[in-house]
Amino acid sequence: QAQLVESGGGVVQAGDSLRLSCAAPPRAVMWYTMGWFRQALGKEREFVAAIARSGHTRYNEEVVKGRFTISRDNSRNTVYLQMSSLKPEETAVYYCAAAQPGNPSGEARSYEKWGKGTQVTVSS
User: Fold this and answer.
1) Whole-angstrom distance, CA of residue 19 vs CA of residue 14
2) Beta strand ranges found along 25-91 (DSSP E)
3) Taking the CA of residue 34 as centre, how many other CA atoms within 13 Å lie in the half-sphere pointing to its CB?
4) d(Cα 13, Cα 116) in Å, to the nearest integer?
């Protein structure tokens, strides 16, 4: 059973970079499709990026616009979200999620396991 633990959140200034990590149980990262979502206060959860076990990635291009990169390290059972040029409107709780193997989905309902999230605050 996948237990996901996010870390790396914090308070940064607009334009800064931040790398989020998602620690997963052994072999989960290499098996599941892993995704990142975010939820700002008072808003719906929003897809950010996902990576399949094949390595195929998918991004919410309206959000990312080439600024974020999802990756994984199977040896560390960890998925990363590298974010750059952060904006104040990207202040949110960022969640890691795991879905059954397949093409990376942008739909939250496709993901079975969720972490508790890590807060990212971008100040102007």
Assistant:
1) 15
2) 33-39, 46-51, 57-59, 68-73, 78-83
3) 33
4) 24
Chain-centre distance for alpha carbon 28 = 15
CA 50 to chain centre: 7
Determine contact, residues 120/17, Cβ cutoff 8 Å.
Answer: no
Please report which helix (H) or strand (E) contains residue 63, including its range. Answer: helix 61-64
Q: Are 6 and 13 in contact (CB under 8 A)?
A: no
Joined together, the tokens standing for residue 16 give 């800064």
Which token pair is 77?
């059972």
Q: Which residue has the tokens 């750059």?
A: 84
Sign of the dihedral through C-alpha 24, 73, 37, 32 = negative
Tokens encoding 78: 């960890």
Q: Tell me the pLDDT of the chain (124 aa) as tens digits.
A: 559 999 999 999 999 999 999 999 988 888 899 999 999 999 999 999 999 988 999 999 998 989 999 999 989 999 999 999 999 999 999 999 999 998 899 999 999 999 999 999 999 9
